[in-house]
TrEMBL record:
Domain annotation DUF4429: ranges: 15-109, 142-228
Species of the source: Streptomyces luteolifulvus
Protein name: DUF4429 domain-containing protein
Domain SHOCT: 257-284
Length: 287
């Protein structure tokens, strides 16, 4: 940068350009995505950035985006491409009349990126969200103190399988990774991975909590997943991809509860008529 400490302010965030990093400060306000408010600020080392783009945005705006290197940011690794565009913490949206200024900073930032160090990383370069943290899922409360994940089940939502297993505690040393499925899609959940065994359905898995309408929102569950994933990586765990599992027969009461959840999402407009019909048929087929 021409001057260390230069600041470029846009909608919902401001980027401060430093000699070895970009400090992103997110605004607080009712129009700012809740994920940004939860993150507060993030320092992105230049070595964690693979490239920079400047593209036209919507409604008279331009978008400056830093492309994180694969494996550099625990938040983006946990999200696994599920974040909506408006919640992408690497996007800075600016008025069109600031395009020339944004282009200048984009060029300056590109010039400072390491030429031969833009591929996947073998360790996280961006700090993980701070712990301790917790959030409420539909079937239980999840908490993490930096060393152990705890699941405490709610009698109003937990399946009989989870009640029989009892409340759960998982040391980071037991885990191989984290699976986060956005609460903004049907059957969203947070699952703790252990080894390479194919997991059961999330609502039957004592190592998973299930989201629902209003439960486990992105701004709470995603930073949680990122913090756990970071702790696993520090201890040498490797995030595993679960193998597809064959459909398992469920308790009829659990099926009825999942169909009720599906109906809530349908009524809220988060699931289309077609998606509702298809998924309901799938659930009934598991009886």
């Amino acid at each position: 940068m021409s001057r260390m400490g230069d600041v470029l302010a846009g909608f919902h965030a401001a980027w401060e350009f430093e000699s070895d990093s970009v400090l992103i400060r997110y605004e607080r306000g009712i129009r700012t995505p809740k994920l940004f408010q939860a993150l507060g600020e993030r320092r992105i080392p230049l070595q964690a950035i693979a490239g920079v783009t400047l593209t036209p945005g919507k409604r008279g705006t331009v978008v400056l985006r830093a492309e994180p290197r694969p494996g550099a940011d625990p938040l983006m690794e946990a999200a696994a491409g599920q974040l909506k565009e408006g919640c992408d913490p690497y996007r800075l949206v600016l008025p069109r009349d600031r395009e020339t200024l944004a282009e200048y900073y984009a060029d300056e930032l590109r010039a400072r990126l390491p030429e031969d160090d833009r591929g996947p990383t073998d360790r996280f370069l961006v700090p993980a969200p701070d712990v301790p943290m917790n959030f409420k899922a539909y079937d239980g409360k999840a908490s993490f103190d930096g060393k152990t994940v705890h699941f405490r089940w709610f009698w109003t939502g937990a399946s009989s399988a989870k009640w029989k297993a009892g409340d759960q505690s998982f040391a980071v040393s037991e885990l191989s990774g984290v699976e986060w499925r956005s609460p903004e899609v049907f059957e969203g959940h947070l699952r703790l991975l252990r080894g390479t065994a194919a997991p059961v359905q999330a609502d039957q898995d004592p190592a998973a909590v299930v989201f629902g309408l209003g439960y486990g929102p992105v701004h709470e569950s995603l930073p949680f997943a990122a913090a756990v994933l970071d702790a696993v990586r520090v201890r040498g765990g490797v995030a595993a991809v679960p193998a597809p599992s064959a459909p398992q027969r469920r308790d009829p009461a659990d099926i009825a509860e999942r169909i009720r959840h599906l109906g809530e999402l349908h009524q809220a407009g988060l699931v289309t008529d077609e998606e509702f019909s298809v998924k309901k048929a799938e659930l009934l087929a598991e009886l």
